[in-house]
Amino acid sequence: MDILITLLAVAFLAFLTVVGLAVWGVRAVGRRAARARADIRRTFTDAVLNARAAQPGAVGEAARTRKELRATLDSTRAALRADTESDAALAEARVLFDQLTGHAQQLDRELGALITGEPDRGRVAARLPDLRTRAERIRRSADALRFAAQERAHRHDAEALDVLHEQIDLEADALRHWAPAPEP
Question: Are 70 and 142 in a shared domain?
Fold first, then answer.
């Protein structure tokens, strides 16, 4: 009877393990599929945006503004993400960038609606200067964060290299000292 209870317990634990692994696998596949959908959607919208940016006129100008805004934000995001892992002091810059991204996403939606949903070219041309000014302000702010993060990383790397160089010089001097230590 004890053997039967033990076998049932082991079988139940094996069943729970298999179910747990299956749930974990399904969730992992779901996450990958969601990422793939987002990547495909972004690739498609970028291709459409590139085609519209090649058009002359106000719609093309709005598409170019939207494309430049996205490129600036993507490069700043990459710079902050790369440096945040090695420098915790950039956490506040990351918070500010997240706030800036909220404004940029709102502007991106407005530009997208203007490009795709506004049939009156005159209205597009009338709204474009204000949107372009907002985009330029966001780009300047994102550039300032990116440049500061890059300069900070460069300075940190230079300081680390200086410290390493001093340690190597000290070790090299120690290795060149051939005279035996005087005995007391």
Answer: yes
Residue 86, φ and ψ in degrees, nearest 5: -100, -10
Q: Side chain identity at 96, as an amino acid letter?
A: L
Verify that 49 and 71 share a domain, yes or no. Answer: no
What pLDDT, in 10s, does the model give residues 59-103?
888 889 999 999 999 999 988 887 666 677 787 888 889 999 999
Range of the domain at 6: 1-54
Do 67 and 16 reside in the same domain of the chain? no
d(CA 74, CA 78): 6
